[in-house]
Design brief:
This protein is mainly α and 91 residues long. It has one domain. Helix content is 84%, strand content 0%. It has four helices and no strands. Helix 2 packs antiparallel against helix 3 and helix 2 crosses helix 4. The N and C termini lie far apart (41 Å).
Length: 91
């Protein structure tokens, strides 16, 4: 994978969706059980804007964005909580 691909639109979409999901979660206090549904809706909407159409491939791309976005949020949250616990143990 080249640097151009890493910084390409797909990577940007995942990060943007992850940040948006985190912001929605923090601002609204929405339950964790609705975050994946929100991610799918936003992912499909973003894919529709990107491809300027709607078909089966765009639907799958939107779902892929959603899965990566939710996974990114969960990973960052897990790492943040893990680091906080380690800091508490050392103090």
């Amino acid at each position: 994978m080249s640097v151009e691909e890493l910084i390409g639109i797909e990577y940007t979409a995942y990060v943007a969706l992850a940040v948006l999901l985190y912001a929605i979660r923090q601002a609204t206090g929405i339950s964790n059980r609705y975050i994946p549904l929100t991610a799918v809706i936003l992912g499909i909407a973003f894919a529709m804007l990107e491809y300027e159409t709607f078909n089966y491939d765009v639907l799958l791309e939107g779902i892929k964005y959603a899965l990566y976005g939710v996974g990114t949020v969960a990973t960052v949250k897990y790492l943040f909580v893990k680091n906080m616990r380690e800091e508490e143990r050392t103090e």
